[in-house]
Specification:
mainly beta, six-stranded mixed beta sheet, five-stranded antiparallel beta sheet
């Protein structure tokens, strides 16, 4: 079975005639009109976008069979997918975010950090999520400074950890000493400079 790629997410209804707000994740937002039926992740439901027009930061779309606001409301937050093989092959210096999932993440020195779990965008830019062999996942800015190398052919991404992530032991030690000193004083006790 071909890998599924999320190409759009349906938002709230637009008006009373069944139109919906549609956020697309394609380079050309109107490309959703040309992929044919879009499905849910599990493939159990299919939707065809029959018309779409640009709005501020999304499309206003008509979905076949959705004729009123009530039907449109039932689709709110639904993600729409296509098979990966329906997308055009990227150029040599391009990639799809989905192609990064599962790649090894390592430092520039080749030290393993884990695997790419996901690429997110919560509104302030793309975030790469790295799952280490144990412990909590790391959420890092998906920028050229933090992810300078994407090597799909060899199955890896290189991560330059920001200083805040690597940890500054001296600063942390000084802060811990300061907290310990403050907590050992009695209320009202002055600290000598």
């Amino acid at each position: 079975m071909s890998q599924k790629i999320c190409v759009a997410r349906i938002g709230a209804p637009h008006g009373v005639r069944g139109e919906v707000r549609l956020w697309t994740f394609t380079e050309d937002p109107l490309a959703v009109l040309h992929y044919g039926p879009l499905t849910t992740r599990d493939g159990s439901r299919a939707f065809e976008v029959t018309k779409a027009r640009q709005a501020k930061d999304h499309l206003v779309a008509t979905i076949k069979g959705v004729a009123d606001r009530t039907a449109a409301e039932k689709l709110n937050r639904l993600e729409l997918y296509i098979a990966r093989d329906q997308l055009p092959e990227p150029d040599d210096d391009e990639y799809y975010h989905a192609d990064l999932i599962g790649l090894a993440a390592e430092t520039a020195a080749g030290e393993p950090l884990g695997r790419v779990l996901a690429i997110h965008n919560f509104g302030a830019g793309d975030i790469i999520e790295i799952a280490p062999p144990s412990g909590s996942t790391m959420l890092l800015p998906f920028t050229n400074a933090v992810v300078p190398t994407i090597d799909i052919k060899n199955g890896r991404v290189v991560i330059e950890l920001p200083a805040e992530i690597e940890g500054d032991d001296d600063a942390a030690s000084d802060e811990n000493e300061d907290v310990a000193e403050r907590s050992s004083r009695r209320p009202g006790e002055r600290r000598d400079p």
